[in-house]
Structure formats: structure tokens, C-alpha cells
Design a protein that fits this description.
The complex is a heterodimer of chains A (about 300) and B (about 260). Chain A is mainly α and about 300 residues long. Chain A contains 17 helices and no strands. In chain A, helix 9 (about 120-135) runs antiparallel to helix 10 (about 135-150). The radius of gyration of chain A is 25 Å and the shape is globular. Chain A starts with a helix and ends with a helix. In chain B, about 55% of the residues lie in helices and about 0% in strands. Chain B has helices spanning about 10-35, 45-65, 70-80, 85-90, 105-130, 150, 170-180, 180-185, 195-205, 210-225, 235-240, and strands at about 140, 165. In chain B, strands 1-2 form a two-stranded antiparallel sheet. In chain B, helix 2 packs parallel to helix 10 and helix 5 packs across helix 7. The relative contact order of chain B is 0.14. Chains A and B meet through helix 3, helix 12, helix 14 and helix 16 of A and helix 2 and helix 11 of B.
Chain lengths: ~300, ~260
């Protein structure tokens, strides 16, 4: 079987740099990491120097994702030999136990880490992940709430909590979590858009107005967010179609919806230059927008 | 007055000036590694971590509260600042000022700091003074007043000698402070051989990171949050957005990345 370096004609330094880029940007392309990383540690381990340990950790987590227990075991052994008393390595051992569905053993391991060091966030989050894996959503939510009471600054945890609440259809609380995220990352258009979607799902005139505003904010932060553009169109149309609004509000929202519709058309025109299939989708979008107009007025 | 009044034996340069530089540098490097070996882990309690994060959250609320709806902002402000059971009003942390006598870890830290930094400096300074005494080592390039003479010309008993000519002990001290930038070049930023930084830390260490600070920090945050108002940034967002067409450039690029590299 051809190696990665042969297939793509790259040197080991490029492979190592690619792994670092994936690590820093939090990619989860586990199969690619396993391919590249496995070759790197098998062929070039001596040349990597001290980088090899963090690559072992990265490859081990990717191997657990791909169900490569053999590779995960070898990585773990190397790490255990080098760092015998490390909490970080213990957490990796716990993750491997989780992958084998030995949840009680994993829990015991995490509890021992927490006994040693009560501020260890990684172990606490893994315990919550175990609850989630076992399908115990309500307990996971409860534990995550307690965790967040102690560590209010953990953004990953806030996001996870919002996702759990959305799964439980508790949209008000999910909105709260997303507000925390929006405050700490005011320039991230994705959080604005997700918040707007939650508000839109909650329904009711005030929430629709809020959702329209936040879709607009997401668009302002990133002009190319198509989802936010459609969201803006939908929320504006819904407000305009609602019987309880004043005439002025209705007029404003019709204007917003028309603008959004025009932008959608423009975007599809840009996409559709040339190919015949794209021309069909342009036509489909136009028809959809027209049909919405009819139900609205 | 640039004429050289004294001509020093070039052996002085070879056997005194350079060895002192090497000695100072090597001692600094050794100090750095010894401080790494003797370093003790600073264990933070759960409460300290939690409190620091709460303070950060309150600060973020003040600064970025304008991005969330008014209702949400008021809800959070109420949670923090409410008269009866707001977080900043209700939480009082136990105040135990860590004096060096009662807190054993601080005591050992102080001792280690003294051993690794002050002691070698005194020892080596004294040894150099004893070994390289009785002659003039070098001349500082700027003129000095006579009051510097007893300080900088330790072993030399000449009344008429210009104060710019200094003994080896002062050359040693000059090196200690001068090689600081060399240390950061070779050992990296946070190195244990950095004398002046450590002395600064010792002076300010008494004033920072004390538990009493948490209560004061809470009070300061409470006041700041009371003063903050909510100016919703999204008030007229639709008008701003729709004033011009969307910039869709680069949305549909011809090339998609294939494969890993």
C-alpha cells in the first residue's frame, strides 16, 4: 500500500507541519490524521525530537475515533513510558477505556485524577462525556451545569450545554448558553446565527424580531453566510405575515424580506453562471421566493 | 578629556576581564537550571480558579454586554449585583493573608529564592574581590564624581586616581546586570538567571495574589457593573446591513482542495 509521502510526494517536515496545523485549528479529520501520523511515527520518530509526544497524543485520539485500537494502544504505551505520572496521559488512558465501553473503569480512573487534583477540568469533562455516551442526557446536563458553576469561563462547555439543551428542546436555556458564547466571541458570526436559529425555533413575535436582528448581525459579520441570509428572509417574512403586527412593522419587514430575497437571487446568479444544472437551481430559488411572497400578502 | 592617562597591561584584559565575564555568565546559566530543579508546583485551589473566572465573566459582561438582548443583560446584572443575594454581594471569601511565617510554602519559596540568587552573588562577588584585588581593571567611558571612588575602587588606595577607573568587583557587578539580555537570548524569556526581575518580583510579591484581594476585587467589579448601562449594538442593524449590497466575492471559487496536501 502506498504511503502518504509517496501518494502526495511530501517530505516528513511537511507532514509534521500539516499535523501541527490540524492540531492548532482543532480539526477532527481523524482518518487523515491517522494516515499521516502513523507513517510519521513509524518511519520518522527519531527525527521529530520532542514533537513526537504531542503527535502521539494527537494520533491516539484520532485512532480511537477510527477504531484503530492497536495504534491507540502503542501510542498510549509510548506516552506512559515517557510520562509515567502524568494526569494528561491518565486522561488518554481513560479515553481508551471509554472507547472500549468500559465506562465504570474509566470513571474510576477519572475519579482518581480528581482526587489528586480537584481543578483538573479535563477529567471532569470526560466524565460528562461518559454520561452523554451512555445516553443519560438529563444527568449530563445536571453535571455540566455544576461544572459550569465552578468554571464559568469554559467556552467549549457552554457550547456543549447549549447543544444538550437543544436536544432536550429547552430552547430558552440553550439561548442563555449561546448568549454567553456571543459575549465572549462577539465577532464570531456562527454563534450569532445559531442564537438566531434558536430564537426562531422558540417562536412568538418578540423572538422572531430578535432572530431577525441576529441573522442580520451574522450577515454583517460575514456577508457570505447563506444560512443567515435565508434565516433573515424567513424571519422577516413570518413577521410580515403575522396578523398581529402594526402596518408600519409589516411594511418594514416586507422591505427586509424583499432585500434578502434579492440578495439570495444574486448569490444564486453568481453560482449559476454557466452550467445548465445551476441554471435550474436558480429558477427553483426564484419560484420558491415568489411562492413565499404570495402566502405573505 | 579623551587621552588615555593610564596604560593597562594587556594581560589584565586576558586574565581578568574575560574570565570575569565567563564566570558571571556560567554562574547565571547554572542558577537558571538549579532554579528549574528546585521549582515547586504552585497548586491553585478550586475556589481561586473559580473566582478568577467569575471576575473575567463579569468583565466580559461589562464590555460586550451590548451584543446580547437587553433582557439577558439585565438578568445577568441582577444575578451579580442584586442587593440581597447577588453573587458579588453574597460571596465573602475567607481572608487569610499569607504571611511568611504561617504559610510554609511561601517560606520555602523565599528561602529558595534567596539561596539561588542572593547567596551566589555575594559569594562570587567576595571571591572576585579577594582574587582580583589591588589593581585597576577597566575604565568606564563616562566621567564619575569622586564620591564613587570608595565604592568602585575597592582594593586600590590611590587618592589621585580618576573615579572612572574601576576595580574588578565593580566589573563583576556590571556584568551581572549587563548579561541579563544575553540570558533572555540564550535561555528564553522566563529564565531563572534574571536577577533584577527576581528582585522586582520579591518587592511586588508581597503585594499581589493575596486572598483579601478577592473580596476587594469583587467589590470593585460590583461597582463597575452598577455603572454599566446596556446600549444594544443591534438597534439599527437592518438599516446598516441593507444600506449596501452584500459582498459575495470569493464565495464560489473554482478550486476545491482535494486530498490532504
Amino acid at each position: 500500500m502506498a504511503t502518504v509521502s509517496e501518494l502526495y510526494d511530501v517530505t516528513w517536515e511537511e507532514m509534521r507541519d500539516k499535523l501541527r496545523k490540524w492540531r492548532e485549528e482543532n480539526y477532527r479529520n481523524s482518518e487523515q490524521i491517522v494516515d499521516v501520523g502513523e507513517e510519521l511515527i513509524n518511519e520518522h520518530a527519531s527525527k521529530l525530537g520532542d514533537d513526537v509526544w504531542i503527535i502521539y497524543e494527537q494520533v491516539m485520539i484520532a485512532a480511537l475515533d477510527c477504531s484503530r485500537d492497536d495504534l491507540a494502544w502503542t501510542c498510549l504505551q509510548e506516552l506512559k513510558r515517557q510520562f509515567p505520572d502524568s494526569h494528561r496521559v491518565k486522561r488518554l488512558a481513560g479515553m481508551r477505556l471509554e472507547a472500549l465501553e468500559r465506562y465504570e473503569d474509566a470513571n474510576k480512573l477519572y475519579d482518581s485524577i480528581l482526587q489528586d487534583d480537584a481543578t483538573n477540568t479535563a477529567a471532569r469533562k470526560r466524565k460528562i462525556a461518559i454520561l452523554k455516551a451512555q445516553g443519560k442526557n438529563t444527568e449530563a446536563i445536571r453535571e455540566l451545569n455544576e461544572y459550569l458553576e465552578q468554571f464559568v469561563g469554559d467556552q467549549e462547555a457552554w457550547h456543549e450545554l447549549s447543544e444538550l439543551y437543544i436536544n432536550e428542546h429547552d430552547y430558552a436555556k440553550a439561548a442563555f448558553c449561546l448568549e454567553e458564547l456571543m459575549m465572549t466571541n462577539p465577532h464570531n458570526h456562527l454563534y450569532c446565527e445559531q442564537y438566531a436559529e434558536v430564537k426562531y425555533t422558540q417562536g412568538g413575535l418578540d423572538n422572531l424580531e430578535l432572530s431577525r436582528k441576529y441573522f442580520a448581525q451574522a450577515l454583517k459579520l460575514n456577508n457570505r453566510n447563506m444560512r443567515a441570509l435565508f434565516g433573515l428572509y424567513m424571519s422577516a417574512s413570518h413577521i410580515a405575515a403575522s396578523p398581529k403586527v402594526s402596518a408600519k412593522v409589516k411594511k418594514d419587514n416586507v422591505k427586509y424580506a424583499a432585500w434578502a430575497g434579492a440578495q439570495i437571487n444574486r448569490a444564486y446568479q453568481l453560482a449559476g453562471r454557466g452550467t445548465k444544472e445551476n441554471k435550474c437551481s436558480v429558477k427553483a430559488v426564484e419560484e420558491m421566493l415568489e411562492s413565499m411572497q404570495i402566502t405573505m400578502s | 578629556m579623551a587621552e588615555p592617562e593610564l596604560l593597562l597591561d594587556s594581560n589584565i584584559r586576558l586574565w581578568v576581564v574575560l574570565p570575569i565575564v565567563f564566570i558571571t555568565f556560567l554562574v547565571g546559566v547554572i542558577r537558571h537550571y538549579v532554579s528549574i530543579l528546585l521549582q515547586s508546583d504552585k497548586k491553585l485551589t478550586l475556589e481561586q480558579v473559580s473566582d478568577s473566572q467569575v471576575l473575567i465573566r463579569s468583565r466580559i459582561l461589562r464590555e460586550n454586554g451590548k451584543y446580547i438582548p437587553k433582557q439577558s443583560f439585565l438578568m445577568r446584572k441582577f444575578y451579580f449585583n442584586n442587593q440581597e443575594d447577588g453573587f458579588f454581594k453574597k460571596t465573602k471569601r475567607k481572608v487569610v493573608p499569607p504571611s511568611p511565617m504561617t504559610d510554609p510554602s511561601m517560606l520555602t519559596d523565599m528561602m529558595k529564592g534567596n539561596v539561588t540568587n542572593v547567596l551566589p552573588m555575594i559569594l562570587i562577588g567576595g571571591w572576585i574581590n579577594w582574587t582580583f584585588s589591588g589593581f585597576v581593571t577597566t575604565k568606564v567611558p563616562f566621567p564619575l564624581t569622586l564620591r564613587f571612588k570608595p565604592m568602585l575602587q575597592q582594593g586600590i588606595e590611590l587618592l589621585s586616581l580618576d573615579a572612572s577607573w574601576v576595580s574588578s568587583a565593580s566589573w563583576y557587578f556590571l556584568n551581572v546586570f549587563g548579561l541579563r539580555s544575553m540570558y533572555s537570548l540564550i535561555l528564553g524569556q522566563d529564565n531563572g538567571a534574571d536577577q533584577s526581575r527576581i528582585m522586582q518580583e520579591q518587592m511586588s510579591g508581597a503585594a499581589m495574589a493575596m486572598p483579601a484581594d478577592t473580596n476587594k476585587a469583587f467589590k470593585a467589579e460590583w461597582e463597575a457593573l452598577e455603572l454599566t448601562d446596556h446600549q444594544w449594538a443591534l438597534e439599527s442593524i437592518e438599516e446598516e446591513l441593507m444600506s449596501k449590497e452584500l459582498d459575495l466575492s470569493g464565495m464560489f471559487s473554482r478550486e476545491l482542495p482535494t486530498g490532504i496536501f
